[in-house]
Amino acid sequence: KRTVVLTMKASVIEMFLVLLVTGVHSNKETSKKIKRPKFTVPQINCDVKAGKIINPEFIVKCPAGCQDPRFHVYGTDVYASYSSVCSAAVHSGVLDNSGGKILVRKVAGLSGYKGSYSNGVQSLSLPRWRESFIVLESKPKKGVTYPSALTYSSSKSPAAQAGETTKAHQRPPIPATTAQPVTLMQLLAVTVAVATPTILPRPSPSAASTTSIPRPEPVGQRSQEMDLWSATTYTSSQNRPGADPGIQRQDPSGAAFQKPIRADVGLDCKIDLSFLIDGSTSIGKRRFRIQKQLLAGVAQALDIGPAGPLMGVVQYGDNPATHFNLKTHMNSRDLKTAIEKITQRGGLSNVGRAISFVTKNFFSKANGNRSSAPNVVVVMVDGWPTDKVEEASRLARESGINIFFITIEGAAENEKQYVVEPNFANKAVCRTNGFYSFHVQSWFGLHKTLQPLVKRVCDTDRLACSKTCLNSADIGFVIDGSSSVGTGNFRTVLQFVTNLTKEFEISDTDTRIGAVQYTYEQRLEFGFDQYSSKPDILNAIKRVGYWSGGTSTGAAINFALEQLFKKSKPNKRKLMILITDGRSYDDVRIPAMAAHLKGVITYAIGVAWAAQEELEVIATHPARDHSFFVDEFDNLYQYVPRIIQNICTEFNSQPRN
């Protein structure tokens, strides 16, 4: 019996092994027959930023031409996700300007990104960003599946977007209570009735993104105010359909709004002004109307016209939209009529996104922007923004835009924990001295800002952000013309001076250029007040003749201080750019210190036989940012982007108080 049982077991095992082997072969044959889907590499444009793509790792194909400076890059090797993907690939050296495939991998955000010039792309510096990415050659990892279609942060179906909007405006549970969520419809229903003055907490950050927090109303207080407002609107509203002719339309403080206050701004107010108005759902229709009345008052007070101020309006909510640009309406009457027709868009209060929109799109020549007029943005905010404004405002200021903030009814003490960015107004405005910001306790007091606002935006001498690193300096070139330079190399130095000069905005009121050539002696080639246009300056540089002689750099610095910078304007930054090819025959320490004490920022560029320690003595501290050594004259051109970047970085790091 045992023998029979063992024989049967062996037979069963043998049959099992045969079936197993047969199955393996069958599976192999089947797998050979099944064709794997071919991976298609998605294509993107040069302007696509990494932050817009949700996928953590992906392969894409970039087009040709992404070396263009229009596509901004932030960082070196590791790039902020605010950068153009394809331009970053060119900067990193993975691609050239002809395009191609790359592998992109998202990594954590950094506390700072340093700009650099590489492969024909100038990347910019950035203080910090929430997300980074690196660019690699398009060699896929084994076992990793890459998407054939990318997922974008804005690629939602209309149904999904509608659902998200509804969700964003629901009130989440109040922390430490058992209260039920209040929906938007319930909120509106309460607003209609007269309620007791009770302020409900604003939503908890846990219920929404920290960069986009919805902002429902302090219901009881606002509802009571709005019922009062039905009897206290502007006089002009008596003529609107449905207005009660028996009610006197007047502000509670006694100031009628029938005719806006005329501010005494004079006839020389020439600005290009954009109003960023709050169209978020939380503001309500009546307060939105008060906001429009302020705009109408400003339009009348400014006396809009081609020779004076021009004004456009952008409304923001979830996303910003231009109602009309600077050249749409050329007189106050037409502008006021257009303002009256503006309707509320609704949504969140994404102020940072709106400021970015204005910086990139509004102040263009096509929209009526005039290079001779300062750019001014007045941002109106009900409560607080639902996104961050600091970074967008920094980029706006660096573009020469003067940002003013009007905040109405800010967060109460128990609401401050829900504010996305504390002290947001001071982080946004051009200066933190109070000139650029207004805080209004109640919408009833908004009209009181009209006169001071108009006076401030027209005070062009105090519009500090109109001054940028490229239009606010007196730059003196101090050029070594000694015998060791030679005629050919001297021409190369002049080309270097020309390349630097081309980067600046040249005029009597913008950047001015002067030049000194030196050997044992010194010669003023031209002063700051001699030429007032870029073509004239470039021609003057071209005409400078080579002198030849010794090298007395210390005496040249003293000469430049006396003959050039002594005639610099008080409101100008003073920049000295000294180029030499050898060690000085005289002492440079005392003249260099004199330059520093007189507020002259000195850049020292040494070529060939120049002494490094001498360059560091001449240069403003820190020397690593202000002194450069080049081994050959022909390589001078490579340092133009870096010098410009350092000049601008230093300018933009000035305190804003």
From TrEMBL:
<dbReference type="GO" id="GO:0010811">
    <property type="term" value="P:positive regulation of cell-substrate adhesion"/>
</dbReference>
<feature type="region of interest" description="Disordered">
    <location>
        <begin position="235"/>
        <end position="255"/>
    </location>
</feature>
<dbReference type="Pfam" id="PF00092">
    <property type="entry name" value="VWA"/>
</dbReference>
<feature type="domain" description="VWFA">
    <location>
        <begin position="272"/>
        <end position="457"/>
    </location>
</feature>
<feature type="domain" description="VWFA">
    <location>
        <begin position="474"/>
        <end position="647"/>
    </location>
</feature>
<feature type="region of interest" description="Disordered">
    <location>
        <begin position="200"/>
        <end position="223"/>
    </location>
</feature>
<keyword id="KW-0964">Secreted</keyword>
<dbReference type="InterPro" id="IPR004043">
    <property type="entry name" value="LCCL"/>
</dbReference>
<dbReference type="Pfam" id="PF03815">
    <property type="entry name" value="LCCL"/>
</dbReference>
<dbReference type="InterPro" id="IPR002035">
    <property type="entry name" value="VWF_A"/>
</dbReference>
<dbReference type="GO" id="GO:0030198">
    <property type="term" value="P:extracellular matrix organization"/>
</dbReference>
<dbReference type="InterPro" id="IPR036609">
    <property type="entry name" value="LCCL_sf"/>
</dbReference>
<keyword id="KW-0677">Repeat</keyword>
<comment type="function">
    <text>Promotes matrix assembly and cell adhesiveness. Plays a role in spinal cord formation by regulating the proliferation and differentiation of neural stem cells.</text>
</comment>
<protein>
    <recommendedName>
        <fullName>Vitrin</fullName>
    </recommendedName>
</protein>
<feature type="signal peptide">
    <location>
        <begin position="1"/>
        <end position="26"/>
    </location>
</feature>
<keyword id="KW-0524">Neurogenesis</keyword>
<dbReference type="InterPro" id="IPR036465">
    <property type="entry name" value="vWFA_dom_sf"/>
</dbReference>
<comment type="subunit">
    <text>Binds dermatan sulfate and chondroitin sulfate.</text>
</comment>
<feature type="region of interest" description="Disordered">
    <location>
        <begin position="152"/>
        <end position="175"/>
    </location>
</feature>
<dbReference type="GO" id="GO:0005614">
    <property type="term" value="C:interstitial matrix"/>
</dbReference>
<keyword id="KW-0325">Glycoprotein</keyword>
<feature type="compositionally biased region" description="Low complexity">
    <location>
        <begin position="205"/>
        <end position="214"/>
    </location>
</feature>
<dbReference type="InterPro" id="IPR050525">
    <property type="entry name" value="ECM_Assembly_Org"/>
</dbReference>
<keyword id="KW-0732">Signal</keyword>
<dbReference type="GO" id="GO:0007399">
    <property type="term" value="P:nervous system development"/>
</dbReference>
<keyword id="KW-1015">Disulfide bond</keyword>
<feature type="domain" description="LCCL">
    <location>
        <begin position="40"/>
        <end position="133"/>
    </location>
</feature>
<keyword id="KW-0272">Extracellular matrix</keyword>
